[in-house]
Automatic annotation (TrEMBL):
This is RNA-binding protein. Gene3D superfamilies: 3.30.70.330. Residues 3-81 form the RRM domain. Residues 88-105 have a biased composition (Gly residues). Transmembrane segments: none annotated. InterPro entries: Nucleotide-bd_a/b_plait_sf, RBD_domain_sf, RRM2_NsCP33-like, RRM_dom, SLIRP/GR-RBP-like. Coiled coil: none annotated. One of its GO terms (molecular function) is RNA binding. Pfam families: RRM_1. Keywords: RNA-binding. It comes from Limisphaera ngatamarikiensis. CDD domains: RRM2_NsCP33_like. Residues 78-105 are annotated as: Disordered.
Length: 105
């Protein structure tokens, strides 16, 4: 098991300190990362909490998954590795000019 946990369904008012307090009741919290929007600085509603051992991470999952924090039921599970994203984009390639249409001259 991994000791890094995904925590979802967070209230926008929940802080890293709130999460640290909630998770520290179940073991040593190594790190809390609350994800925020780059442009607004507002919470994105999820975070990652790293516990010091797998056993503490499992205890936190069992105790906090579905538990209420700031009026919302938490989703707590083992964080999955980040998936690689392709660097391509939509829109396809440029099409060669094929003429057609009305002429301005």
């Amino acid at each position: 098991m991994n000791n890094k946990l995904f925590v979802g369904n967070l209230s926008y008012q929940t802080t890293e300190n709130d999460l640290h307090d909630a998770f520290s009741a179940h073991g040593h919290v190594v790190e809390v990362n609350l994800m925020t929007d780059r442009s607004t600085g507002r919470s994105r509603g999820f975070a990652f909490v790293t516990m010091s051992t797998d056993a503490e991470a499992q205890a936190a999952i069992e105790a906090l998954h579905g538990a209420s924090l700031d009026g919302r039921p938490l989703t707590v599970n083992v964080a999955r590795p980040r998936e690689e994203r392709s660097h391509g984009g939509g829109g396809g390639g440029r099409r060669p000019y094929s003429g057609g249409g009305r002429s301005r001259y």
